[in-house]
Amino acid sequence: MRLTTKGRFAVTAMMDLAMRGEDGPVALASISERQKISLSYLEQLFGKLRRHKLVDSVRGPGGGYCIARPLDQVRVADIIRAVDEQLDATQCGGRENCHDEHRCMTHDLWTTLNIKMFEYLSSVTLAELVYREKLKHVGTAVMEDQRRLGPQPRARAGRDKLSAAV
């Protein structure tokens, strides 16, 4: 697989933006700091994302970037394609000249894998990724509360029956 840091960073930055963009534009510097991605690299990526109409930019004080469409309409494949990332498991880039200028025996296998990767990444939306990430944080917070508070006394049987009846 040739999913490089370009595609990974673009998806990560878009998730960060989606999770924080409800309150208005998000500065690339803040994404850079949180995700440990070079600001100049983010600027290059977001230029491409903007040209593909996945993000909008807002200039001036309080400016930054916003997701340009509803999160359930932004697919991971769209993000990866926007930053010119090639998803290709073949050695030949699909040109069928993988083995001494001829098609190799496993070419169809890798071509099918390319199709399946693209289908999968096209099926995952930014909304789903953000939802999953938020669930992780909720679960972590609950576990931390339980650890901090310690074991809780069990309710008496009579109270349990009353609660079940209500």
Q: Indicate the CATH architecture.
A: Orthogonal Bundle
The chain-level mean pLDDT equals 84
Alpha plus pi helix count: 7
Number of domains as seen in the coordinates: 1
Per DSSP E runs of 2 or more residues, the count of β-strands stands at 2
Through-space gap between termini: 55 Å
Characterise this structure.
There is one protein chain. The protein has a single domain (5-86, 125-165), classed as Winged helix-like DNA-binding domain superfamily/Winged helix DNA-binding domain (Arc Repressor Mutant, subunit A, Orthogonal Bundle). It is built from 7 helices and 2 strands. The chain has helices at 5-20, 28-35, 39-51, 76-82, 107-123, 126-149, 157-165, and strands at residues 55-58, 64-67. The chain has a two-stranded antiparallel sheet with strand order 1-2. Helix 1 crosses helix 4. The N and C termini lie far apart (55 Å).
